[in-house]
Amino acid sequence: MIYTLTLNPSVDYIMELDHFTQGGLNRSVKENALPGGKGINVSRVLHVLDVKSTALGFAGGFTGEFIKRFLQDEQIESEFVEVDEVSRINVKVKADEETEINGNGPSITKEQLDILLNQISALSEKDTLVLAGSIPASVPESFYQEAASLCEKRGTRIIIDAEKKLIEPVLSLKPFLIKPNHHELGEIFGVEIKSIEDAVHYGKKLKGKGPVNVIVSMAEKGALLLTGEDVYQASAPVGELKSSVGAGDSTVAGFLAGLSKGYSIEDSFRLGTAAGSATAFSIGLCDEVKVNDLFKQIEISKR
Ligand SMILES: Nc1ncnc2c1ncn2[C@@H]1O[C@H](COP(=O)(O)OP(=O)(O)OP(=O)(O)O)[C@@H](O)[C@H]1O
Ligand SMILES: O=P(O)(O)OC[C@@]1(O)O[C@H](CO)[C@@H](O)[C@@H]1O
Question: Boundaries of each Carbohydrate kinase PfkB domain copy (predicted)?
Fold first, then answer.
């Protein structure tokens, strides 16, 4: 079973505006409220692609209820630990440019954290755990490392998609996949990634630190997959960018879904890229029709 972990889930409140004026009164023309947080997005895209998963994390208050009910209505399993304060609302403004304001999120107690650690301790070598997104301020920064060490002992596959300081301590545990975008890859090495050649060079350096697979996503420039001794490059299809929120999470979900369905590593990467682009071309996450359509358009070359 695939488990996704979202320590700080959200209601993503997407507001569409013709134009955004900083410091002024803005009125949106359309709004959408969707469950968010990187692990939850991975679970929702896995579901779109017909792959079962269980979403773990913390949820509280009316926003927590919204998130749980939404997933239940989509028939996605979840086992959230109940917290006292409300889950955050992340505002996504879609105007001339995309602007995001992510909330801080609820406090998590030691007891609530222990319940989650017990859930993680119960996973086995048949399971995969996706650790994705930021860590709430009340949770120790070493949490992903602790969770990943528990998984390593039990043979559970780890996938991690998070910022530099959370990824770095987990690399030596040889996670199955990490997926930085090209900016995040640059941050890890204190450089700016300016070309595909740079991304290949630093992607290889990152893989050398332990992960089995590295996907470097590069927005409209597509993505790279480093696996074994091979480097694959996927083109991104051309289309109208509607909202990139969740595009990277969709890449992770598509890749995992492909492997779960028994696709080759190359076709799993193609499915990941198709899911990422299908989400970028949607308000909210991708749907199956868009993913299947883009799947046929994506070219993969071996470098
Ligand atoms: N403008 C775009 N056109 C086509 N495909 C896109 C575009 N933006 C994103 N994608 C697709 O989504 C994938 C992931 O995008 P990106 O590199 O922006 O990830 P990310 O920064 O982790 O995303 P986010 O944090 O917004 O979820 C890309 O590899 C590509 O397949
Ligand atoms: O604050 P974090 O945890 O870094 O990111 C949270 C978030 O921006 O990431 C998802 C898109 O990847 C959204 O659904 C959500 O609002």
Answer: 6-286
